[in-house]
Amino acid sequence: MDQNVLSEIMIKDLMAIGKEKTLKSQHSLFNYKDKVDKLYLVLTGGVVLLHVHPETGAERAINFFIPSFHPIASIADSFYFNTPSEYHLKTFTNSTVIEITKESFNDYLQTSKNALLVQEHGIRTLLDKNKMRANLISLNSLEMFQYLHKHYPQILQQVPSKYIANFLGITPQWLSKLKHQL
Length: 182
Description:
This protein is 47% helix and 23% strand. It contains eight helices and eight strands, in the order αββββββαββαααααα. The chain has a four-stranded antiparallel beta sheet with strand order 1-8-3-6. Strands 2-7-4-5 form a four-stranded antiparallel beta sheet.
């Protein structure tokens, strides 16, 4: 099984403890400085995590959440440490999610026989994010685009180009040129 996709058991468990919501494109789940008290299981559509520059307020895409890639969306540090968020989390297309409160999730972790599966998935996801961010720092935009194309084609297929370009730190026009170099 792809480590970025949740098993059917985990999806059913999370659906049972949360509430289904249908969200429009550009719907903010959490804004800069919010305290995060929810997780979102992305069933359809997608969510983008944007880092907010503390001085300028400029936003930069740093992760994507789609059903086939990191499907549990939240802002981990704020969720776990109850600190104001340094990020903005929003949908990039019409999306269906399961909204799970921190209280429900913590109860689930204490009582479910499948909690360990969800925790292990969370750890794998964090490690994957760290690897991706390390590559983002060390690879040039073409190399990083090639890395995404090889390892995470679903991102390039499902996330709007403006967010891919923002993630790579380039303009949408430059991204278009990169696509032609593949």
